[in-house]
Amino acid sequence: MEEKEMLGLAEKAAQQFELAGEAKSIRPYGSGHINDTFLVEGERGYILQRMNRSIFTSPEEVMENIVGVTTFLKDKIASAGGDVLRETLTVIPTKENLPFYLDAQGEYWRMYYLIEGAVSYDRVEHEKDFYESALAFGNFQQLLSDYPAATLHETIPGFHDTKARYEVFLKAVEEDACGRAKYAAEEIEFFRSRKETACVLGELLAAGKMPLRVTHNDTKLNNIMVDQETGKGICVIDLDTVMPGLAVNDFGDAIRFGASTGEEDETDLSKVSCDLRLFRIYTEGFLKGCNGNLTDMEIAMLPMGAKVMTYENGIRFLTDFLKGDVYFKIHRENHNLDRCRTQMKLVADMEEKWGELEKIVQSCAKQ
């Protein structure tokens, strides 16, 4: 769809929401790759999004989750004397008092207040920013620690079911639809030899040794809004994947992405490792934000969360390579295989540093 046509749809959608005054301008906004996002400017700023129905097949359930969680958060923030318009997202209702607008093409639109005076960062440029993101995601866990997680919809079924991801991987190897398995024999063996990594967290949950919690499931740095004056992380955004899950997975995915010394598709694997200093910084911030709400088992399993999330993403990249690159966008030949190899290197590096990772967590937990 051409940009002019998309803007026309956005302008029509914006008119369906309860705005303070008229919308004076609408333009594409941000660097997200999932939803189509626009900045609506008028008496104040708004974020308008067309939701991606190919990924989120039940948009109404996504919005039900978001409304439930943000309403709960506002009550907690208000009770603590915080700013409810800056410290969580505010869903703007339509003129029919719905949390979304369904257009004539069957597309779902939603609107939030713009978080004024705040920015997000796509990568870790300063250690302080990484710490602030950890503090914010930990605080997100703390605020929602008594939210009934089981009442949330699973917006992407099996999203972090690593054992199920492993089974899909084995099937892709067996079918070898594109004849690529011979080019990835070493990679296939790497994941097969670590099958227990795919099962460990699920088994702990099933045995009742770790609690089901409200989890964000996309804990990258750019999903935290940082106050431009104070540099403090003030608001967790992108709540589409808020679902029942494990706190250690939220911690682990942030480590996988933010504490790696290399890019996710780095071809020179000598540049890829788990930075112990960044691991410590994030652990300190996350545990401080959680404010004592994690169990002893959850704290002990934080390094495993990092390993499992890295292993899981490696499996996903390898599975997509074997299937012919049907899910992740690629920009060169063997791109998904390169991505898979960086995750393998990170897993292997974590294994070598396992004792150090556990000591860091133990040290941070005593602070």
- Oligomerization state: single chain
Q: Counting H and I runs of at least 4 residues, what is the number of helices?
A: 12
Radius of gyration: 21 Å
Shape: globular
Mean pLDDT: 94
Structural class of the secondary elements? Answer: alpha+beta
Question: In what range is the share of β-strand residues?
Answer: 5-15%
Give your account of this protein's structure.
It is globular and about 60 Å long. It is built from twelve helices and ten strands. The chain has helices spanning 3-14, 59-79, 127-143, 162-175, 185-192, 195-206, 247-258, 276-290, 296-300, 302-323, 335-352, 354-365, and strands at residues 25-28, 36-41, 45-50, 101-102, 108-113, 118-119, 213-215, 224-227, 233-236, 243-245. It is α+β, with helices and mostly antiparallel strands. The longest helix has 22 residues, at 302-323. The termini are far apart. The model has no long low-confidence stretch (mean pLDDT 94). Helix content is 46%, strand content 11%.
Features:
367 residues; 5-stranded antiparallel sheet; 3-stranded antiparallel sheet; 10 strands
Secondary structure: elements and pairs:
Layout (H helix, E strand, L loop, with lengths): L2 H12 L10 E4 L7 E6 L3 E6 L8 H21 L21 E2 L5 E6 L4 E2 L7 H17 L18 H14 L9 H8 L2 H12 L6 E3 L8 E4 L5 E4 L6 E3 L1 H12 L17 H15 L5 H5 L1 H22 L11 H18 L1 H12 L2
Antiparallel strand pairs: 1-2, 2-3, 3-5, 4-5, 6-8, 7-10, 8-9
Helix pairs in contact: 3-7, 3-8, 4-6, 4-10, 7-8, 7-10, 8-12, 10-11
